Amino acid sequence: MPGPKRNKIAVIGAGNVGATTTLDIAKLQLGDIVLFDVVEDMPQGKALDMYEAAPVHGYDCRITGTNKYEDLEDSDLVVITAGFPRQPGMSRMDLLKKNAQIARSVGENLANVAPNAILIVVTNPLDVMTHLIQKVTGFPPERVMGMAGVLDSTRFRCFIADKLGCSVKDVDAFVLGGHGDSMVPLARYTTVSGIAISELLPKDEIDALIERTRKGGGEIVSLLKKGSAYYAPAASVTVMAASILRDEKRVLPACARVDGQYGLSEVYVGVPVKLGRSGVEEVIEVELTAEELASLKKSADEVIEGIEALEAEGSAE
Ligand code: TXD
Questions:
Q1: What ligand 1 atom has the least distance to the C-alpha of 42?
Q2: Which residues are part of the catalytic machinery?
């Protein structure tokens, strides 16, 4: 007798973030996973290696690798990590164009093989890539989102816990805006077991933690020398995937399409959202100060500039 349908999850890009996300998702047993990459045999090798760990870890899901989009047919959720990091000598625009080409091809293929999937985009520059993929697929915006806020907020939570010498479990942080430099951390909504951090740390120390969070990605890059962060990014994608596939309705920061909220329209930007089986089920709007609103607007303007630059180059949809 056929049992209940298992979730099918596709991960595009079997590099550091893609492979680590696959393993994290398997450990939570969210469904069967297909790992896709354009490099021949590599996703098959990584998938087989991870599958061979299943009896030891005790996860009961299939993990396969592929170079063919047909194998992603009818996926329920797709994580998109395909892309390249900036190479020495490459301008921001060159990177934008290169990753936009990849995003377009991924989007076109997914629209064919997995028209009902929910997409979580990870590829940088995050907000622009998320916008592009929504446009190319034509999927409703609630089914296309990007991961950045969970990562920024988990970094901020770690740094606060470290500073206070308390458990990371009790720290909750709230960040808005774009990834990295244009991130807008909201210290007054950041708490330790409900206590505002302003009660626990002086302003200059909070500001220093915010600055470290903004540069969190760069800190890892300079330590690794080659490549960028992937353990915390993969864990952040996985928490979003779990909330969607298990319909947990968690409230998490994500790159989502706002339509009127925060005075912004038709742009992807980091905001708190409710994630459930339909994707982004609600964009949560909170009262912001004029300064916070201006930072959020600046971050949205940067996304629009990126999209316009691509359009001017004839590389956007
Ligand atoms: O917070 C965030 N959103 C981020 C974003 C956190 C971490 C990493 N972030 C970005 O994710 C990073 O700047 C990159 O744009 C992506 C992927 O990072 P990763 O560290 O996993 O990069 P790798 O290890 O270079 O892997 C990229 C893989 C590699 O195996 C390529 O062969 C593959 O992408 N690739 C493709 N796969 C499928 N289809 C196409 N067209 C393709 N092109 C390259």
A1: 30
A2: 179
